Backbone:
DNA sequence: TTGAAAGCGCTAACAC
DNA sequence: GTGTTAGCGCTTTCAA
């Protein structure tokens, strides 16, 4: 008779063959019942399902992956630089949302910080390919990736958190320019006749462009533009500069929450009051913006929506050659840092 | 002749057979060369390695997983409750450190928030098992897990972030009691004759016990103990209570950074100054504690060390029956929230 | 509607 | 030292 269920302890997992035997059918029928692919007689199907339940059978995903070329898994590559990505609540929220979206579709997620240079990313993509990963979401860092090289690996990929749209690259990103316009307009609506900018100062950076354009359009003096990387330290340095000015700008648009948090700290230290002396609006709308002091008014990126769309874009891709950029609008979340709001 | 390399585009990945053919050896020799397991003549090995390089061959991990029962992958289960785990920088840092430790060992990581109840965790462990995951790190939430049930799944697991040591459970955790002692002593060293506590009020909670014992040992009045869950909102509520007191405690020990952040916000709102009116020390030492205002003095958990140990514990496990709790000491990181430090 | 059998790519026991 | 071969558990023709 062979071994019956051994005493408690890590027992061997049931395989498709065990199920088939117990249901008195062939292996194939088990597959048909479970995955479809061929019609199965009602009675047969019931016996199979019963056997599955009795045995607590669960298909071996490794075997499935080998045979079908799909591990039912997605990969997420986050930029691993001098600033730990996971210290950025925006990425953290994004990663979380992607995992949730993948799971809803029955996919698992490999998530890994990777240096954002071409070679490292290629290595990681290759590793994913050997694991039969179905698609990879890449959050780029500094430096750009050559789409052709990545394509040649043969694994579907999609670029997240895109700032500059690129031909031949399937990508997803927030409407940075539109968000910057929202933020700047709001500061101006508060009555400020001068708005400063802290962030990446580059004609091609949409947040910078949005701020610039809005100041010009509304005939408002553009306060100084202070350079800052997207982290707290750099924002702090900019904040110190602001505090040291003879005539500090009464309104500041910071290109990310992290920058704003740094600015905030510097102003606190120098006894400059936010929002009384300086009104501040930032970008991202991550949860950290909510528990800062004062809480930050910020342009909230539609993270869940973008995550959902990312997973869908890669999983539902039909024509591999139809590549495009998908842009998502954010909304301004009003809190305390921009000043008191009057009823409209 | 068959097909030669097709024009650029996702080409078929080379398999072990391709390498064998090109090197003029059998499949087995390729395996021997790559994995060891049998001696290979120097010259042969060189030819194989050359072929591997020429073809850019990388072993198919799905096939490996099927054959060997190991996907070279670890799983990390985070508690998914009403409070999103990824809003807690402590978990975020921990997850990041675990991923890095796993990667250093050549392992990938599945990371997933999961409701911490028994059924959900079992389901997830089973899913991991079908994917031939080599071991799972479980961060428990509310409610306890039955080790016997988890063991029966047959996949090695380890409990992280452990508060209460349990027999029969392999686990890792910080020295919470020792940390609470450090924090409380420090507040007392600042000259305060009364120290309050905000956190979980339970005789079995080590942070609570450490605070209690230290106050008694040093003959200091223990200020009120205010209940709080481990999140910002709850800390905020406690902070409001503190601010509303006739005679607020001059020193507070908060059981986590998140709690402290909430307390801080409440005190700000009520115009209570930290550290002048209230000195504050918290627990965890996550990065968010550094950019709060004022920056938090906090007991830093040795996250990297614990992550490293977690991965090692599960991968280097020899005797599956030798289970124990591994405890790690934290250290007090001095910042501003506890008050000015005089030279020792 | 069901079954037999080939094969995904790799490993390892066994033979030479 | 090297080759042959039998699977790991599953999917999928192809036949019956």
Residues:
């Amino acid at each position: 008779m062979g071994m019956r269920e051994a005493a408690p302890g890590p027992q061997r997992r049931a395989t498709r063959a065990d199920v088939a035997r117990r249901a008195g059918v062939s292996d194939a029928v088990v597959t048909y019942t479970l995955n479809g692919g061929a019609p199965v007689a009602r009675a047969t199907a019931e016996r199979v399902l019963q056997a599955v339940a009795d045995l607590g059978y669960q298909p071996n995903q490794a075997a499935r992956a080998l045979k079908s070329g799909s591990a039912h898994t997605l990969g997420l590559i986050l930029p691993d630089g001098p600033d730990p990505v996971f210290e950025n609540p925006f990425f953290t929220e994004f990663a979380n949302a992607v995992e949730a979206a993948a799971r809803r579709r029955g996919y698992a997620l490999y998530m890994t910080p990777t240096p954002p240079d071409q070679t490292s990313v290629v290595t990681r993509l290759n590793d994913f390919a050997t694991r039969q990963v179905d698609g990879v979401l890449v959050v780029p860092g500094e430096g750009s990736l050559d789409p052709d090289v990545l394509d040649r690996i043969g694994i579907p990929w999609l670029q997240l958190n895109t700032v500059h749209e690129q031909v031949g690259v399937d990508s997803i990103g927030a409407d940075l320019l539109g968000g910057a316009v929202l933020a700047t307009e709001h500061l101006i609506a508060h009555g400020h006749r001068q708005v400063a900018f802290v962030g990446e100062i580059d004609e091609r950076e949409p947040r910078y462009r949005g701020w610039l354009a809005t100041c010009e359009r509304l005939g408002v003096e553009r306060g100084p533009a202070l350079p800052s990387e997207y982290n707290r330290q750099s924002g702090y340095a900019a904040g110190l500069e602001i505090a040291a000015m003879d005539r500090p700008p009464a309104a500041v648009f910071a290109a990310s929450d992290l920058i704003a948090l740094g600015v905030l700290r510097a102003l606190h230290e120098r006894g400059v009051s936010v929002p009384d002396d300086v009104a501040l609006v930032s970008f991202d709308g991550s949860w950290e913006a909510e528990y800062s002091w004062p809480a930050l008014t910020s342009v909230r990126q539609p993270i869940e929506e973008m995550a959902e769309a990312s997973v869908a874009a890669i999983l539902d891709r039909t024509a591999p050659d139809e590549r495009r950029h998908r842009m998502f609008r954010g909304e301004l979340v009003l809190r305390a840092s921009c000043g008191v709001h009057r009823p409209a």
Chain A touches chain B through 53 residues (CB under 8 Å).
